[in-house]
Amino acid sequence: MDAPETLRYSKDHEWLRTEGGEGVVGITAYAAEELGDVVFVEMPDVGRVLAKDETFGVIESVKTASDLFAPVAGEVIAINEALSDAPELVNSEPYEGGWMIRLRLAEDNAAEALMDAAAYRATLGD
Q1: Would the pTM of this model clear 0.85, i.e. be above it?
Q2: Which CATH number is 98's domain given?
């Protein structure tokens, strides 16, 4: 299963890419595949402060709806507005155009607590 080496991963199938003191969050290709065709993504308001593992939104597909969880603590500084009109980007580009939120990280080293790509793939049985 596709899991880029440059990202960190949560047990809930969210990924985190750190960029300085910020982090970009989305769901993994595995999660997107399990959900099926994504039809709606509910996102938090910019400015909301999230605790690690706090629900920050909901993703709906033709099969189900699932909560989205913050892999790290931080303040939401941007949401991916493109998902309002094109939620299918989560399926087609889970690690690029399908990102969901950008956070100002509460802790600079927060990503270290998440799994690397090899550990994440091991949880999937790959």
Answers
A1: yes
A2: 2.40.50.100
